[in-house]
Automatic annotation (TrEMBL):
<feature type="compositionally biased region" description="Polar residues">
    <location>
        <begin position="278"/>
        <end position="288"/>
    </location>
</feature>
<feature type="domain" description="DUF7305">
    <location>
        <begin position="346"/>
        <end position="550"/>
    </location>
</feature>
<protein>
    <recommendedName>
        <fullName>DUF7305 domain-containing protein</fullName>
    </recommendedName>
</protein>
<dbReference type="InterPro" id="IPR055729">
    <property type="entry name" value="DUF7305"/>
</dbReference>
<feature type="transmembrane region" description="Helical">
    <location>
        <begin position="21"/>
        <end position="44"/>
    </location>
</feature>
<keyword id="KW-0812">Transmembrane</keyword>
<dbReference type="Pfam" id="PF23960">
    <property type="entry name" value="DUF7289"/>
</dbReference>
<feature type="region of interest" description="Disordered">
    <location>
        <begin position="265"/>
        <end position="288"/>
    </location>
</feature>
<feature type="region of interest" description="Disordered">
    <location>
        <begin position="372"/>
        <end position="391"/>
    </location>
</feature>
<keyword id="KW-1133">Transmembrane helix</keyword>
<dbReference type="Pfam" id="PF23981">
    <property type="entry name" value="DUF7305"/>
</dbReference>
<dbReference type="InterPro" id="IPR055713">
    <property type="entry name" value="DUF7289"/>
</dbReference>
<keyword id="KW-0472">Membrane</keyword>
């Protein structure tokens, strides 16, 4: 008996053998192809990496030879450029740009001069997505994952001195296996006596901006070389580093100091409300226990002591001194040009050669306010909403805060330092009235930076009106509260039936041509005043804190790159085939 399905199963077995063989052969062929393909790719990648490595070595050699031509005594040099048929060398005349600006913050308004604005150019090696370039005296590598520095550019910063011998590249669009490097001239940019660019620098900031495909690596080098900050503009492939002419250390060594030659200090008291300066020492005790006769006045300009005003200390002027009426100076008077003494001087009167003013701190104030605007602790306190102090009595702890304005009308702002520093950056103005008060507790310092983009309704950047106070709960220790202003800063502390009290320092030097001013009328200040001009009217009392003599007015900041000497030059080279 036959079963039809038995015959079918036999036929299937007969067909499975060749099908299996075909499948096995297909797998072998596909596998072999994959292995060959992967091996070929790996081989190509290995060759590319080796070629890039050789190119880096060649570019470093080119860097060395280019420096000999641009900065040394060699007129020309030749260098080999290694590569494969997959790689190319070329000159890109338009690659990159370096700009060097210097801003003088003592001018009014501040002026910015471009010292250098140069195309860098580059010698570029390319192999697929890999790129190695010689630019700005350094060698850089770039790929899809970013850029790195192979060897550093010609940029040297040490001990507040910047040396920047920029090397720019021009030449043939394409290069062969050898390159010839020749000198194309050098231009001294800074110092330049004829242009008035001299060392040492006395004020301002220097900004160096590099626009380049390798800007991130330039920025990392700036940060490494200077221990400062680099500011990235990713949209424009650029990075900027800022070097600052030191504004400190400075000490407040007088009760009242006017810092510009065109400024003046005037004491004008009358009747039962004399204007007076004297001193105390908060490191010894409060005013009542350490009162002294060191309420000195110092100015690069004029001094007028009128009415029944009294300087319980000395007067030192870089120009004219007048002591009139019942005016009294208990110690010496020093003047530079003329004197008019009709009042009383208990010490010597002598002529001196002059008094040096203090540079403005506009750059410092601008930077501190800008930095606080970007990064602050406003969100960590319930006393600030957005960029405004909330209404009612408020408290701030240690930290950095940014305010559009600081207005206290009947409210108290308590600052608990806890031994740490507090920074308050104000964009526009400070206005305190109607028993408003700033109260400082703890052992830390409060630094209040007022940029002064706008004034209060009274027209001032800092105004304490009638009943308002700044009070330090620590023996009149003025070292704990500092107000900083720019060269156009305007401050008024004035009373009426009541006498406002300010404990601290107002520090707003005018520089050479600024017009910062402070006016004190029927008000009492414990600490010191520094501005372009100062007026102490009826009832104005300035008690100089002698503890300020050893106190740095401008705080240290490790992120500020300090600059005193600047050396910049442009050094041009041509790179051609051959």
């Amino acid at each position: 008996m036959r079963f039809p399905w038995g015959q079918g199963r036999g036929q299937q077995r007969a067909q499975s053998a060749p099908l299996g063989l075909i499948l096995v052969l297909s797998l072998v062929i596909v596998g072999s192809s994959v292995v060959v393909s992967l091996g070929a790719t790996a081989l190509v990648d290995t060759e590319a990496r080796l070629d890039v490595s050789r190119a880096e070595t060649g570019m470093t050699q080119l860097d060395s030879q280019a420096a000999l031509v641009a900065l040394g005594n060699a007129d020309s040099q030749r260098v080999s450029l290694v590569g494969t048929d997959r790689s190319t060398y070329r000159i890109d005349d338009t690659a990159g740009r370096m700009t060097v600006n210097i801003t003088n913050h003592s001018a009014s308004p501040p002026t910015t001069v471009t010292l250098m604005d140069e195309r860098l150019g580059a010698v570029v090696y390319e192999n697929g997505n890999q790129e190695v370039a010689y630019q700005g005296g350094g060698v850089w590598r770039r790929s899809d994952s970013g850029s790195v520095m192979v060897s550093p550019p010609e940029f040297y910063y040490r001990d507040a001195t910047l040396t920047l011998p920029l090397i720019t590249v021009r030449g043939d669009r394409s290069l062969g296996s050898r390159a010839s490097i020749s000198k194309d001239g050098t231009t001294q940019v800074y110092p330049d006596q004829a242009a008035g660019n001299i060392n040492p620098l006395d004020t301002g900031t220097v900004n160096i901006t590099v626009q380049s495909e390798y800007y991130r690596s330039w920025g990392r080098y700036f940060e490494e070389r200077t221990d400062g900050d680099a500011y990235y503009d990713h949209e424009n492939d650029s990075v900027t580093t800022t070097l600052v002419v030191p504004t400190g250390p400075r000490e407040v060594t007088s009760a009242v100091a006017a810092t510009s030659a065109g400024g003046q200090i005037t004491l004008s008291g009358s009747g039962t409300d004399p204007a007076r300066t004297d001193s105390y020492n908060s490191s010894v005790g409060d005013y009542s226990t350490s009162r002294g006769s060191f309420g000195t006045i110092t100015t690069a300009g004029d001094v007028y002591v009128k009415g029944n005003s009294e300087v319980d200390g000395s007067v030192r002027s870089g120009d004219r001194v007048e002591v009139k009426g019942s005016g009294v100076v208990t110690r010496d008077v020093e003047y530079s040009t003329t004197k008019h003494i009709k009042g009383t001087v208990n010490g010597d009167v002598r002529q001196i050669s002059g008094v040096e003013g203090a540079g403005a701190i506009d750059g410092l104030v601008n930077r501190r306010v800008a930095n606080a605007s970007d990064t602050n602790d406003n969100g960590a306190t319930s006393s600030i909403s957005g960029n405004q102090l909330d209404s009612g009595d408020q408290t701030l702890g240690a930290g950095t805060y940014y305010l559009e304005d600081l207005t206290l009308s009947g409210e108290t702002l308590t600052i608990n330092t806890g031994g740490d520093d507090v920074t308050i950056a104000v964009r526009d103005y400070v206005y305190i009235e109607n028993n408003g008060q700033i109260k400082v507790n703890g052992g830390g310092k409060v630094r209040l930076y007022v940029k002064g983009e706008a004034t209060s309704a009274s027209g001032h950047h800092f105004h304490i009106y009638r009943t308002g106070d700044v009070n330090i709960d620590n023996a009149n220790n003025s070292k704990q509260f500092w107000v900083y202003g720019q060269s156009d800063f305007d401050a008024v502390i004035e009373g009426d039936t009541d006498t406002p009290q300010f404990e601290g320092v107002i520090y707003a030097p005018a520089g050479g041509v600024g017009a910062s001013s402070v006016s004190l009328k029927k008000a009492e200040l414990y600490g010191g005043l520094v501005a372009g001009s100062v007026t102490v009217d009826n009832g104005g009392l300035v008690h100089y804190d002698r503890a300020l003599r050893n106190e740095r007015a401008v705080p240290k900041n490790t992120n500020i790159i300090r600059l005193t000497y600047l050396h910049v030059s442009k050094n041009r080279i041509n790179v051609t085939s051959g």
